[in-house]
Amino acid sequence: MIALLAVAWIFAAEPSAARELPLSEAMSLAASKNPQVEVAAADASRAQTLVKQGYALFLPTIEAQGAWQYNHERLTQPFPGGEIVFQPWWRRTWQVTANQNLSFHGPALPLLQQAKAGARSASFAEDVVRADIGFAVARAYYAALTADTVVAVADDARTAAAELLRVATVKRQNGRATDAEVLRAKLRVAESDQALASARRAAEEARETVADLIGVTGPFRFTRPARAPDPSAVAATSGAPLRAEIQAAHAAVGFADAANTAAFRRWYPTLGVQATYSGYDTSDGELFGQPKQSYAIVALASVTLFDGTLKYWQTRETRAQVRAAKAREESTRLAAEADERRSRRRVAAAAETEALAKERLSLATTARELVAGQYELGVATQLERLDADSAFAAARREAAATELEADLAILELRRALGLALLP
């Protein structure tokens, strides 16, 4: 008895000790702590660095180098009026070189455009992951709320079964009930205990699912948010282009197009200019015929005459990638439209099912109250009372399930239309 009271006290104290976690906060936690979101954000950040690299192709490169040389001997050649030094004891040299690519008509600009398209695609891919994680959190959150409702239903059924057992026991003592009725009441209590334990396990698993998605352990107390507005009035397929999946697929086509242009422009000649400043110093000062400082500007031009057909096959490859990207974009668009149609049908079906479940619950409540009164007066049998209680509990569970289905159907339609899950 003491153990049962302790367990009951724990379950009673848990809701007050748990912190309230609204759905909006749960989705925000998942967006900031979920590993999949972190991976997608890192990929988007990496793609932005590629854009910076693309801009760097248009900037000059400047290099500096220096050297110091010590020789084991000094070599000279006599000369009228002096000597010519061929090898001094030591020599210092330095050189600064600046290179500027002038082939702006070549692959540099397409490579920059390719990097920008890749950054857009990565950003949209991150939006897709965030939307998926947000929907998963919302689904798990509503499932946990429904599981809590099922626990409450099972607990009420357990209380009703215990009361029925008490009444049956009293009637048996007064000779108004049989041993079979008492046994049936005990069996109903055992079944209620089993159902309650199963419901509590399911609720705990649902809460663990939410905790895994948001990356924070509880205990939490969930509250049912206001139902999101039904977007069924939005015109068919008008919201599909807003979906991040379609925008990501469109950006992938731009990425493939830019890659194809860059591959084709590798056939263009390469133009550039190089400026060099160099100087030296030695143990003997200035060497014969070698000024200590020099400047040079060189114009460069190169063109590939034959590369073993490598550029040809690279161009063929990028053309195939363009076709594949366009096919994936079309496939993504068709899948989004089909998803939208299915979501609209599900919203309508869920609304109808929810209305029927509410009507069933109303009838089951009325029937249970009527049978309970008749049972107290001795008009209804115990089996009728058990059937009425079972029908009432089943109607409550069905009402909770249909409410969950309606909530998720609306969220799925908002997801299919590219709208925010929560207004």
Summarize the structure in words.
This protein has 423 residues and is of the alpha+beta class. The chain has a domain of 234 residues: Outer membrane efflux proteins (OEP) (Up-down Bundle). The protein is 65% helix and 15% strand. The protein contains 8 helices and 8 strands, in the order αβααββββααβαββαα. The strands form 3 sheets. It has a 4-stranded antiparallel β-sheet with strand order 2-5-7-8, with no helix packed on it. Strands 1-6 form a two-stranded parallel ribbon. Strands 3-4 form a two-stranded antiparallel ribbon. A hairpin with a 2-residue loop joins strand 3 and strand 4. The two termini are 49 Å apart.
CATH architectural designation of the domain at 24-58 and 104-268 and 303-336: Up-down Bundle
Q: If you consult CATH, what is the topology of the domain at 24-58 and 104-268 and 303-336?
A: Outer membrane efflux proteins (OEP)
Characterize the biggest β-sheet: 4 strands, antiparallel
Mean pLDDT equals 86
SSE arrangement, N to C: HEHHEEEEHHEHEEHH
* Fourth-level CATH superfamily of the domain at 24-58 and 104-268 and 303-336: Outer membrane efflux proteins (OEP)
- Give the number of DSSP strands: 8
Q: Termini separation (Å)?
A: 49 Å
Our count of helices gives 8
- Principal-axes geometry comes out as elongated
Unreliably modeled segments: 1-16
Features:
single chain, 423 residues, alpha+beta, Outer membrane efflux proteins (OEP), two-stranded parallel ribbon, 8 helices, disordered N terminus
Short summary of the structure?
With 423 residues, the protein is an alpha+beta fold.
